[in-house]
Amino acid sequence: MSKGKINVSVENIFPLIKKFLYSDQEIFLRELISNATDATTKLKHLSNIGEAKIDIENPIIEVKVDKKNKKLHIIDQGVGMTQDEIKKYINEVAFSGAEEFLEKYKDSAKDSGIIGHFGLGFYSAFMVSDKVEIITKSYKDESAVHWSCDGSPEFTLNKHDKKERGTEIILSISKDSKDYLEESKIRDLLRKYNRFMPVPIKFGTKEIVKDTGSDDDKKEEKEIVDDIINITEPAWTKQPKDLDEQNYKDFYKELYPMNFEDPLFNIHLNVDYPFNLTGILYFPKISNDINLQKDKIQLYQNQVFVTDNVEGIVPEFLTLLRGVIDSPDIPLNVSRSYLQVDSAVKKITNYITRKVADKLNSIFKKERDKFQEKWNDIKVIIEYGMLSEEKFYEKAKSFALYPSTDNEYFTFDELINEIKENQTDKEDKTIILYATDLKEQDSYIKLAKGKGYKVLLLDSPIISHLIQKLESNEKNISFSRVDSDTLENLIKKDEKSISKLDDKQKDKLKGYLEEIIPKEKFTLQLEALDSDTIPFMITQPEFMRRMKDMQANGGGGMFGNMPEIYNVVVNTNSNLISNILSIKTKNKRERLIKQSMDLAKLSQNLLKGEDLTDFIKRSFDLIK
Ligand code: ADP
Ligand code: MG
After folding, report:
1. Count of helices and strands (H, E) across the chain
2. Which residues, at least 6 apart from 63, have a Cβ–Cβ distance to it below 8 Å?
3. Which of 23, 86, 121, 384 is the most exposed place for a label (fewest CB within 10 A)?
4. CA atoms of 478 and 429, how far apart (whole Å)
5. What is 235-359's CATH number, 3.30.230.80, 2.40.30.20, 3.90.850.10, 3.40.50.11090?
């Protein structure tokens, strides 16, 4: 057996780094600006702790496009590098000066917001450049140096006469990447990645108009100022106590300038133990196209934009929210765009879920009216959360609302108290009646309300799934849609009327009805109800309709081909039935049954096509 060490030679690795390390070419600018920001942060820190005895005013970073010479400049006024530091930090690939700095100033610099990590960011510059130069002057009393490298592992390093402290990176943009010599392209990139970074970034100048002079003698003066593209202290980096409602709304506009609607609520995230995370999440007003509105949350690391794919960090049901999450602790791979899912991420996800639930709960408790008012806009997210996250379900139980058709809002517990005591099914479970559509189910709602039952209005698309879950989680309840067979059972139980018809008359009626009403589609039921209760009513078994509903929005194919079976409940005590029985002419009788049946179908939205046309014609004949 022999042992050895694999020999990795720089010549081979270097082209690989250029080609494969980064998922996206354009991030080179983000990396260079991150380094410039780190250099500035370091200088501020050293000055704060008295290690650099210098005046720092307001250091900025400048980006310049020199289209003529095909060069891009990134200039900072930060710590700079000495010749030795260049050798150490730049010439050694994957040696991170940022990590070293954090290690050295462990206690004082822990929360300084240093971005660098892997010691690889700088080399991304070679993805778009034929040559990269560094001209840098350290804050220490040493001469400036000029480093230059054309992408091969060979470099040159010379003294330079730069006098100002800081670093200038000069990229000679390669032919393939000439897009990066367009001002608009660079501006877009700066806006995308660097819009909320902590050091001001200048990109060119702009003209502003200033009001000068007194009130009576107004003058306008034009002035050329630096065009600073970033907001250095975005709202999420501040303390919630220093922000008011308007600040949150303004920041929302900042994030989504194309969005004209105000957010409904905001949730300020702010933890530093056991992980560091800040951010602001917003509940937007959701319109119908849910998919278009997903994935608008932006992920930042120390104010550097990373991605707007927060899959895995934010629980699925909250991807409809908007806003920003910033955490240096979210483990991303080198290219920073892909998440390495691990237990730390799981903790972050749980924290976000809990925080959202707590915030909703506190709004519900403190401002119930406001919460109720917005319920319709937020219910889909909450109901989806209750279905998909057990922990959220437990918390949401106290603030999830169940509105009635009369615009009252109940929590689950309040609802149970509202329901009639004897409103139970065969197994003694409390029956909760609900409608999904005020218009389509109007006649059933009226009927139920007329009999003194409370009817809920539950109209979100996933409601049948939630109902199923509530029934299995909460003991002794059962939901039934208002037009299901349950209502007829309730009424029967309540009324206990004595039948006006004897058995012979019942058989006769049955015969008449069966001639007209097709057996394969309708199960005929003769019931002795109050004489003023509806004479013909079509209902559908609750379980059957619900299975179909659930299947329609993705609940398995088991019930796909279930036949449509309905009940026809005929009130034998109604005057209409007495009429039908007393009519002598067969034609007239049949017409009356058909008409009644069609009316019942109409209120279940079952009368269509030719049947509807016939019904209209017959109705006109009847009133002629
Ligand atoms: P990282 O930022 O992850 O440490 P980089 O490859 O981006 O790795 O940079 C390597 C090191 O080079 C940095 O840690 C820093 O010490 C040094 N460096 C890069 N850019 C600058 C700059 N503009 N000013 C001062 N030092 C810099
Ligand atoms: Mg870096």
Report:
1. 19, 21
2. 29, 33, 72, 73, 74, 75, 186, 190, 201, 202, 203
3. 23
4. 6
5. 3.30.230.80
Q: Which CATH topology does 10-204 take?
A: Heat Shock Protein 90 (3.30.565)
- Is 166 a pocket residue for ligand 1 (Cβ < 6 Å)? no
Average pLDDT over residues 581-588: 90
Both tokens of residue 346? 């799981």
- Looking at the predicted structure, is the pLDDT value of residue 335 above 60? no
What is the average per-residue pLDDT within 516-537?
86
What length is written for the chain?
A: 624
CATH topology classification for 495-624: Four Helix Bundle (Hemerythrin (Met), subunit A) (1.20.120)
The CA-atom distances, in angstroms, between 342 and each of 72, 270, 474 are 38, 21, 33
Digit-coded pLDDT (tens) for 32-42: 999 999 999 99
Q: Is the pLDDT of residue 140 over 80?
A: yes
Query: Ligand 2 centroid to 114 CA: how many Å?
Result: 9
24 vs 472, which has greater pLDDT? 472
Ligand 1 atom at minimum distance from 97 CA? 14
Q: The tokens of 300 are what?
A: 């930042």
Domain range list for the chain: 10-204, 235-359, 495-624
pLDDT at 357 over 80: yes
Coil, strand, or helix at residue 165? coil
The pLDDT tens digits for 54-69 are 888 899 999 999 999 9
Question: What's the whole-number average pLDDT of the chain?
Answer: 87
Q: How would you class 121 by CB atoms within 10 Å of its CB: exposed for 0-12, middle for 13-18, buried for 19 or more?
A: buried
Give the pLDDT band (50/70/90) at residue 9: low
Nearest Cα residue to 114 out of 104, 124, 129: 104
Ligand 1 atom 14, closest CA? 97
Collapse the DSSP code of 371 into the 3-class scheme (helix H, G, I; strand E, B; otherwise coil) and give the result: helix
120 lines ligand 1 (CB under 6 A): yes
89, 91, 135, 140: which to mutate for ligand 1, most atoms within 8 A of CB?
89
Which atom of ligand 1 lies at the shortest distance from residue 76's CA?
A: 23
- Asked if residue 153 has pLDDT above 90, the reply is no
Lowest mean pLDDT among 178-192, 232-246, 429-443: 429-443
Ligand 1 proximity of 101 Cβ (cutoff 6 Å): no
Res. 340: pLDDT tops 80: no
Q: Do strands 430-435 and 402-403 pair parallel, antiparallel, or not at all (unpaired)?
A: unpaired
Q: Which atom of ligand 1 is nearest to the CA of 31?
A: 7
Of all protein residues, whose CA lies closest to atom 2 belonging to ligand 1? 116
Considering only residues 551 and 76, tell me which one the structure prediction assigns the higher pLDDT.
Answer: 76
